[in-house]
Every structure is written in structure tokens, then in C-alpha cells.
């Protein structure tokens, strides 16, 4: 029996399921009309924020109508079913080879790569390849292989902490400071040893958007190898910058032009411009991915290598990536990323011009920048108060403390993505100016509620 025993023609909000409210923690006993269930879902999610005004997330919130058509025609494809969907598997192969070439692989034919659910999975695969290769070398030398460590910045994204936790690797964090705002090779010799499986370099630090100088890190590791014999590889976490630098800073050497860079990961669903659910990882040469981590899947009478933490996963996002590579081409990607950077620099200049703020960076790397309150500007309000005032106007602009050794510094950050137009940016800047003027006009401090960051790294 249907919960809604009255006519489907009855006014929507008078139907029984709507009139009495939907259950929250148990599956309802009976079915309801599709239109009613759809309306309930839409009613509840209308309370969410507007994704386009979410300036905390790096993840794409806009795609064109043709992309949506590609999505809806392919969201039933399971990426793991390579026998059932061989052409989708071939398109996945095309995409990572395009990325291998974009990242200056010396020979994409000898590279290897895969799509993933997001760049977090891609990072974990890169880390696993490091760990397994290190273990194999240690055992071949008759040495202990039980205490691997991974060296990274204290500003690393939490997926790397998860990797170390889940896969029994000691994390070694190089603290960032006001003098060394990123991992730049400074004092690296104090953190690496014979148990170091690799060093992570970030192309676009999550906290601020700044690039870590990969070539400088590689040079520091070259010097360490010269003095100690330790040959330590680099994984570049290019979650954001991997799809920015090739288009906006093509002369910056950070990728497979550096022999020490064994692998690079990126988020297709960030500046790859695809809806959520896609990452990529590519190894410079297939030999850097230990073969005992790779499973062979048969399809069309041949074999396809697969390396992933997930099994069933959507194929639609892979097709969306291919659509965008075809739709935009190199020049189209360059134009989109340049527009985002132009908007970021516009906002950074406007915010930096306010007496209340000091810029941490200006969006010259990826289109992301952060700022802090000028010392001594006010005792009446904080960046958390500004965050709350902007949220009242629909904007999510997170404030949060910096990582270890800089936790006394609170910054606020804007991520500019495709879809944040210059027109919207002008409205945002006007709102920031208006709310800062309001806060500066306070005659006494704001109530001292606990600081509430809207974003977690």
C-alpha cells in the first residue's frame, strides 16, 4: 500500500508524507509518490549553502550544459568493469597519457597512470608505491624494512596524515615558519635518513595556495645524496597546481623534467574542472610503480593493469575529463585558469588595500590567497567574526589557524574557481568592505564565543 492513498493530483504539500514529515532514522514502511520523495529531498537540501558562493572548497561547482549531458548519459558506467566498458577504459588510458605529456614525461609510452576517486586516493597510491619500492630495496640488501618514514611540510593536506596512519609510515613534518612559508629544502637533511621512503612536495599548499619549490627541494636532495648516498624520490601533490602550472607558469620546473620526481597526482575535480569524484596519478616511468601492486584485468582478449584502493567507482567523471580535454584544449584551459587567477589577484589587491589586513600571498601561484589581520588593528573583532558576517550574506570565506609552529596566526582564505566571475568578485569585495567597516565601527569587543573555523584541512 502507498503511504499516499489520496490522488496524485492532490496539492503537493497536502499529501500525507509531506503533511506529517519524513522519517529521519528508519526507512518508512511504505512507498510514496516519486514527486513527493523528490520534493522532500529538495526541501531538505535547500538548507545547504549555495555551492558557487562556497569560497572554501577547491572542488568544481560549475560545468556547462553539454558536460551535464555527458554526465547523465554515463553515470551508470562502472569504471572497474573494463570488460563491459572497454572504450571508457581506453579513454581513461588516453587521459592519463595526456597528463603525462602535459607534465613533461620524457616518454609517455613508458609512463603509467590511473584515475582515482579523488586526489586523496591518488596520493595514497603514490605513497604506497614509495613504501613498497623502499621495502623491496631494503630486503634485497638484507636490512630491516619495518620503520619507513615520509617527509613533508607541516602544512600538508590531511590525506597524507591519513596515509601515514593507515599504512604504518612515520610522518616527519618540516614546520613552516614566517621565514620559510613552504617546504623549500631548508634543513631537509635533518629529517631524512635511510628509512625515508620519499619527500612530498605540494604544488598549491591547501592553507594558502602557495607552490612549494620542487626544483629547490630536488636540489637539496641531490646534495644529500652526494654526501650520504641516500637516493630519495619526490612525489608531487599537484592536487591544484598540477592543472594550473602547465598553463599559467609553463617555464616553472616542478614536474617530470626533474628526474627525482617519480610520481605526480592531481584532482580532476579541482582545477581539472570536473564535478566531484575524480583524481589522477601518473608515474614518470612504469618501473617506479612496483609490479606486485598492480592487478591485471582481462578485457577484449587482452589485459589492462589496474591499481586502486577502490573497486567499483563511477566512470562518468573520467568521460567528463576527456570531454573537457577535447572541449577546451590547451588554450581553453589556459584561458579558464587565467581568468580565475585574474579574479584572485583582483580580490587580493582589494583586500590588501584595506587597513585591517595583511596579505599572506596574492594568488600568483594557484588562484588562491590568504590574509591576516594587521597586528594592532583592533581588539574588537577577529577574522572569525568577519567569516560569520560574510556567511550572513551567503559567502563562505573560511578563517582558521595556520599549522603547527604558526598556530598563533589566524588567516582567512579565498579559493577562486571557474564560475566565480569578475562580476561576482566585485560583489564579494563590496561585501567585505562593508562588513569590515561595520566591524571597525564597533565600540566594544564582539562576544567572545569560541573560534569556529568553517574549514578543516
From TrEMBL:
- On whether Nucleotide-binding is a keyword of this UniProt record, the answer is no
What highest taxon heads this organism's lineage? Bacteria
* Known cofactor(s): pyridoxal 5'-phosphate
Q: Which SUPFAM superfamilies match?
A: PLP-dependent transferases
* Residues covered by region (Disordered): 1-20
InterPro entries per UniProt: Glutamate_decarboxylase, PyrdxlP-dep_de-COase, PyrdxlP-dep_Trfase, PyrdxlP-dep_Trfase_major
Q: Which reaction does it catalyse?
A: L-glutamate + H(+) = 4-aminobutanoate + CO2
Q: Which UniProt keywords apply?
A: Decarboxylase, Lyase, Pyridoxal phosphate
> GO molecular-function annotation terms?
glutamate decarboxylase activity
Pfam families, per this entry?
Pyridoxal_deC
Name of the top EC class for this enzyme:
lyase
The UniProt record lists the EC number as 4.1.1.15
Give the family, as the similarity comment puts it.
Belongs to the group II decarboxylase family.
Name this protein carries in UniProt: Glutamate decarboxylase
Please tell me the species this chain comes from: Microbacterium paludicola
Amino acid at each position: 500500500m502507498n503511504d499516499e492513498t489520496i490522488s496524485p493530483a492532490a496539492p503537493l504539500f497536502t499529501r500525507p508524507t509531506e503533511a506529517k514529515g519524513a522519517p529521519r532514522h528508519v526507512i518508512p514502511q511504505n512507498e510514496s509518490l516519486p514527486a513527493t520523495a523528490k520534493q522532500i529531498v529538495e526541501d531538505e537540501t535547500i538548507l545547504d549553502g549555495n555551492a558557487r558562493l562556497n569560497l572554501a572548497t577547491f572542488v568544481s561547482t560549475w560545468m556547462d550544459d553539454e558536460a551535464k549531458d555527458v554526465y547523465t548519459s554515463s553515470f551508470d558506467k562502472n569504471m572497474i568493469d573494463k570488460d563491459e566498458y572497454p572504450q571508457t577504459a581506453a579513454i581513461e588510458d588516453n587521459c592519463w597519457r595526456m597528463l603525462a605529456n602535459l607534465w613533461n614525461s620524457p616518454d609517455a609510452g613508458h609512463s603509467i597512470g590511473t584515475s582515482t576517486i579523488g586526489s586523496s586516493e591518488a596520493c595514497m597510491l603514490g605513497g604506497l608505491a614509495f613504501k613498497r619500492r623502499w621495502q623491496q630495496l631494503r630486503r634485497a640488501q638484507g636490512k630491516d624494512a619495518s620503520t619507513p618514514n615520509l617527509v613533508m611540510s607541516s602544512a600538508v593536506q590531511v590525506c597524507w596524515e591519513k596515509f601515514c596512519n593507515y599504512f604504518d609510515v612515520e610522518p616527519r613534518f618540516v614546520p613552516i615558519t614566517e621565514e620559510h612559508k613552504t617546504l623549500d629544502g631548508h634543513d631537509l637533511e635533518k629529517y631524512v635518513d635511510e628509512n625515508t621512503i620519499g619527500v612530498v612536495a605540494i604544488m598549491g599548499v591547501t592553507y594558502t595556495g602557495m607552490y612549494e619549490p620542487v626544483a629547490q627541494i630536488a636540489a637539496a636532495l641531490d646534495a644529500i645524496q652526494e654526501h650520504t648516498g641516500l637516493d630519495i624520490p619526490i612525489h608531487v601533490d599537484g592536487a591544484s597546481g598540477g592543472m594550473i602550472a602547465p598553463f599559467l607558469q609553463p617555464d616553472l620546473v616542478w614536474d617530470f623534467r626533474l628526474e627525482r620526481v617519480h610520481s605526480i597526482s592531481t584532482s580532476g575535480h579541482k582545477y581539472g574542472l570536473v564535478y566531484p569524484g575524480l583524481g589522477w596519478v601518473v608515474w614518470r616511468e612504469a618501473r617506479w610503480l612496483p609490479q606486485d601492486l598492480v592487478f591485471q584485468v582481462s578485457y577484449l582478449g587482452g589485459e589492462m593493469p589496474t591499481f586502486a584502493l577502490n573497486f567499483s567507482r563511477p566512470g562518468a567523471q573520467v568521460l567528463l575529463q576527456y570531454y573537457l580535454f577535447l572541449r577546451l584544449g590547451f588554450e581553453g584551459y589556459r584561458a579558464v585558469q587565467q581568468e580565475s587567477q585574474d579574479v584572485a589577484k583582483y580580490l587580493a589587491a582589494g583586500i590588501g588595500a584595506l587597513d585591517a589586513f595583511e596579505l599572506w600571498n596574492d594568488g600568483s601561484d594557484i588562484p588562491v590567497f590568504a590574509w591576516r589581520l594587521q597586528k594592532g588593528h583592533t581588539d574588537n573583532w577577529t577574522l572569525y567574526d568577519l567569516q560569520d558576517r560574510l556567511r550572513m550574506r551567503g559567502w563562505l570565506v573560511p578563517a582558521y589557524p595556520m599549522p603547527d609552529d604558526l598556530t598563533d596566526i589566524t588567516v582567512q582564505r579565498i579559493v577562486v574557481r571557474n564560475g566565480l566571475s569578475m562580476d561576482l568578485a566585485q560583489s564579494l569585495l563590496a561585501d567585505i568592505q562593508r562588513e569590515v567597516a561595520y566591524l571597525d565601527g564597533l565600540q566594544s569587543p564582539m562576544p567572545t564565543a569560541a573560534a569556529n573555523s568553517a574549514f578543516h584541512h
